[in-house]
Amino acid sequence: MINPKLFINKRILILTAGSRGDVQPYVALGIGLKQAGFEVMLATDPGFSSFVTSHALDFAALRAPFAQLIDTDAGKAALAGKKSFSLKQIKPMLHQMMDDAWDVAQQYKPDAVIYHPKPLAGYHIAEKLNVPGFLAMPLPVYSPTRAFFNPVFGGANRGGFLNKLSYTIFLKATLLSYRGLINNWRQEKLGLSKFRDELTLKGRAVPKLYAYSPHVVPVPPDWDETSIVTGYWFLDSNVDWKPPSDLVAFIEQGSAPIYIGFGSMASQDSRRTTRLVLEAVRQSGQRAILATGWGGLSYEEIANNVYILKSAPHDWLFPRCAAVVHHGGAGTTGAGLKAGKPTIICPFFGDQPFWGRRIFELRVGSHPIPQKQLTVEKLAQSIREVITDSEMRQRSEALGEKIRTENGVTQAVKLIKEKLSRHVQL
């Protein structure tokens, strides 16, 4: 039994950056930690200040405008695969983000740091403060395995040796890009020497918490105890949130609609994307809810079988839909699976093809359609498939039932408490 006195006034600093999908799971984790008796400070983009504080968590700003960057012409071109950002372009932003993280840490004086890799500074701050660090993210890219290729590269099974090698390549490639920047910052800001890697801290392996269900990606048999799949970190919708009356009326006036939304992945040609999606919906004969996200879908004339949605909590909306179509973000994928709905993933890049592959392999959705290959005919056919395939729908519901019995936040908090207890006792 863990002595609760060990956790009195324990302060946890959570660092993350990116889109809503990169922040929301950490808010859920922060709530769980606070309910367990911890003090929690969540540091991320200033645009999420009210979102974080509305859940009674302390907030600190990291000036890391990833959202704004993606919404620029250059960002949209990068999403479309036409060009990529150079380190020179984003170096000032990254440096500012790390400086902010260190300023927050000095003021807050945390007893542990939980960090997404994007802010770059989490591991190094934990080292400087001599406190435990926890790498936390919804994707298993930092734990080598023979079971599947690194998810950043799509996750296909290319054979045991090549699968494991892909993690070494990923880690070396990632550090190659940022090592100089980070080492200069470590020396100038933290007074630390050059680092070797980010997988060991003070001679111990860094715990890696992966926020997804083991029913979606089974735990590889060759992982050690420092790689932990906790289950999804779902954030329940605000009890005070009320759906728009016209949305409720639309849902109730006919068959369950298809949800279609590409989240923060703003299209370089949103008008073209909208026309494509609307025509696919028309050809499929279904009703649809189109989520505009950050403006990735624009519209002019909308048929009466389509509802344009600005926003709604996934845990309220998805159970009322027949299927979900999206870009394959980890959070949206998890929400659709929890609701027990068949899925169509149209990935842009990164880990999105990995989740699309997993959906298809689990037979709870259609074959993924990469955005570069997205056509009216392919999308319409996939919609018809997920609506008419009764076995797929049954498998989706069965998987949803399993996920709904899990509590990833509770599991993560338990593991964090156990590891902090060992640290205190050393």
UniProtKB/TrEMBL annotation:
<dbReference type="InterPro" id="IPR002213">
    <property type="entry name" value="UDP_glucos_trans"/>
</dbReference>
<dbReference type="InterPro" id="IPR004276">
    <property type="entry name" value="GlycoTrans_28_N"/>
</dbReference>
<dbReference type="Pfam" id="PF03033">
    <property type="entry name" value="Glyco_transf_28"/>
</dbReference>
<keyword id="KW-0808">Transferase</keyword>
<dbReference type="Pfam" id="PF06722">
    <property type="entry name" value="EryCIII-like_C"/>
</dbReference>
<feature type="domain" description="Glycosyltransferase family 28 N-terminal">
    <location>
        <begin position="12"/>
        <end position="142"/>
    </location>
</feature>
<dbReference type="InterPro" id="IPR010610">
    <property type="entry name" value="EryCIII-like_C"/>
</dbReference>
<dbReference type="InterPro" id="IPR050426">
    <property type="entry name" value="Glycosyltransferase_28"/>
</dbReference>
<dbReference type="GO" id="GO:0005975">
    <property type="term" value="P:carbohydrate metabolic process"/>
</dbReference>
<dbReference type="GO" id="GO:0016758">
    <property type="term" value="F:hexosyltransferase activity"/>
</dbReference>
<feature type="domain" description="Erythromycin biosynthesis protein CIII-like C-terminal">
    <location>
        <begin position="300"/>
        <end position="406"/>
    </location>
</feature>
<protein>
    <submittedName>
        <fullName>Glycosyl transferase family 1</fullName>
    </submittedName>
</protein>
<dbReference type="GO" id="GO:0033072">
    <property type="term" value="P:vancomycin biosynthetic process"/>
</dbReference>
<dbReference type="GO" id="GO:0008194">
    <property type="term" value="F:UDP-glycosyltransferase activity"/>
</dbReference>
